[in-house]
């Protein structure tokens, strides 16, 4: 198969060249940030580090970390590194957790971001002959605008659908023969479910690839989506703070996402001590954005837990790969003292033949955590015989206990009774109010 790249020279440059490029950019970026952002200047002064101390990427560890709390402190303009007359756009997180992040862009920032998204589309097999349906939300969320821009750059015919209105999504997909779809994995699963209900088989669906991200999803969910839609499903990663999607993306090997290292310098740290960990060790992902002008980031703690690897990739890309995030250090639940990630529950469900339609409810009663998992029955399991239902629930709870080490109360609920998501799925309801 022909190997395709959007920016071949950059995507396949030798590791030495990448590191040299990163070093040059880092020195400039630190100077830019120190000179233009008072907030960073005081963080660096506090740590006793000056721009001239940073001579290359080997000095990165000398810089202070930046956290979400800093973003909150500096809200809204405190981290801006360019005058407003050079900024052309903002994007923002939904702020459902009360922590709205606003990112600013110059035109150059947007251009580089769209290039990153274009790399992801080309890695998924996209060319100017494709029809690319962008079903991430548009507006403040970065998903729609990012992939929309990337799709234009590749020259695909772009369908700016935004999320939601599933009937209309399907109509456009079918009428215009969309070949690539970009949306959250949970929405892809929902679209797949709806197509199936309408009687479509995978070979009748024109799609060949999907670019899914913005939330955690498991390998099992990938298989599920690939089978229902008859496509290859690629992962894409990013966060509002780093411009949005396209920080990292999967190639045809589907074994982790190449980080666009010419723009983003990645480290893995111990989330508790801040110590930098060697390649191949699981820890918190930290990014330094090397080119971002308006909203630069030095050593930004993402809270996403993953592993980095530089094992050569058969696609020819040389950029380091990150594993799927295994959860966020801040959405890991501690239930009765045990660490639980929603993705572990999802893995069990798919292994046991259930659909990934579930909700976890954690509460605290009499000083003890309660742990309930509502799971939709498959339509073919639908039964109101109490005995049969209890047996199914018990067996599923057993499988979860094996995976997690603690016993949830599993409740099988009727098919379609858990709200479907058109954007990021709400998997956890934690009523304990521990924070
Ligand atoms: O979710 C940007 C994005 C849009 C990425 C479209 C991919 C596709 P935020 O809303 O700021 O930005 O959320 C960022 O989402 O720190 C991760 O915890 C999570 N996340 C993003 N991509 C993935 C992924 C966008 N592929 C937060 N797998 C990040 C798992 C992901 N988690």
The strand order across the widest sheet is: 4-3-5-6-7-8-9-14-13
The CATH fourth-level homologous superfamily of the largest domain: ANL, N-terminal domain
Whole-number mean pLDDT? 93
Report the biggest beta sheet as strand number plus sense, adding barrel if it closes: 9 strands, mixed
| The number of domains | 2
Strand content: 15-25%
Number of helices: 11
- Indicate the percent of residues in helices: 25-40%
First-last Cα distance: 51 Å
Number of separate strands: 20
**Which fold name is given in CATH as the topology of the largest domain?**
Rossmann fold
Envelope shape: globular
- Rg, rounded, reads 22 Å
What is the architecture of the largest domain at the second tier of CATH?
3-Layer(aba) Sandwich
What small molecules does this complex bind? 5'-O-[hydroxy(phenylacetyl)phosphoryl]adenosine
For the record, the CATH class of the largest domain is Alpha Beta
Low-pLDDT runs of 5+ residues are: none
Which secondary-structure class do the elements indicate?
alpha/beta
């Amino acid at each position: 198969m022909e190997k395709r790249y959007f920016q071949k020279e950059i995507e396949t440059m030798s590791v030495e060249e990448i590191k040299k490029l990163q070093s040059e950019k880092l020195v400039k970026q630190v100077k830019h940030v120190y000179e233009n952002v008072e907030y960073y200047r005081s963080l660096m002064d506090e740590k006793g580090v000056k721009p001239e101390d940073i001579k290359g990427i080997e000095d990165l560890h000398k810089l202070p970390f930046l956290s979400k709390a800093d973003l909150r402190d500096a809200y809204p303009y405190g981290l801006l590194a360019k005058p407003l007359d050079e900024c052309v756009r903002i994007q923002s997180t939904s702020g459902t957790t009360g922590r709205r992040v606003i990112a600013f862009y110059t035109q150059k920032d947007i251009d580089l971001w769209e290039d990153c998204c274009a790399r992801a589309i080309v890695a998924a097999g996209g060319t100017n002959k494709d029809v690319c349906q962008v079903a991430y939300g548009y507006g403040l969320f970065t998903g729609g605008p990012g992939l929309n821009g990337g799709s234009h750059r590749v020259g695909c015919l772009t369908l700016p659908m935004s999320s939601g209105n599933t009937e209309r999504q399907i109509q456009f997909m079918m009428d215009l023969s969309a070949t690539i779809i970009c949306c959250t994995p949970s929405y892809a699963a929902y679209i797949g479910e709806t197509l199936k209900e309408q009687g479509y088989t995978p070979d009748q669906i024109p799609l060949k690839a999907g670019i899914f991200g913005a939330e955690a999803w498991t390998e099992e969910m990938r298989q599920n989506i690939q089978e229902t839609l008859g496509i290859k499903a690629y992962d894409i990663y990013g966060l509002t703070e780093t411009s949005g999607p396209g920080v990292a993306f999967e190639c045809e090997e589907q074994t982790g996402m190449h980080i666009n290292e010419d723009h983003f310098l990645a480290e893995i740290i111990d989330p508790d001590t801040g110590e930098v960990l060697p390649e191949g060790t699981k820890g918190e992902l930290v990014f330094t954005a090397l080119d971002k002008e308006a909203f630069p980031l030095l050593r930004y703690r993402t809270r996403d837990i993953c592993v980095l690897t530089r094992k050569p990739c058969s696609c020819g890309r040389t950029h380091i790969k990150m594993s799927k995030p295994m959860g966020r250090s801040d959405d890991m639940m501690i239930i009765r003292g045990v660490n639980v990630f929603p993705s572990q529950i999802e893995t069990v469900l798919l292994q046991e033949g259930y659909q990934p339609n579930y909700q976890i409810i954690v509460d605290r009663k009499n000083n003890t955590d309660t742990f309930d998992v509502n799971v939709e029955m498959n339509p073919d399991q639908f039964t109101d015989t109490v005995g049969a239902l209890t047996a199914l629930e018990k067996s599923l709870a057993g499988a979860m206990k094996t995976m997690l080490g603690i016993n949830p109360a599993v409740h099988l609920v009727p098919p379609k009774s858990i709200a479907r998501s058109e954007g990021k799925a709400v998997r956890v309801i934690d009523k304990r109010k521990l924070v």
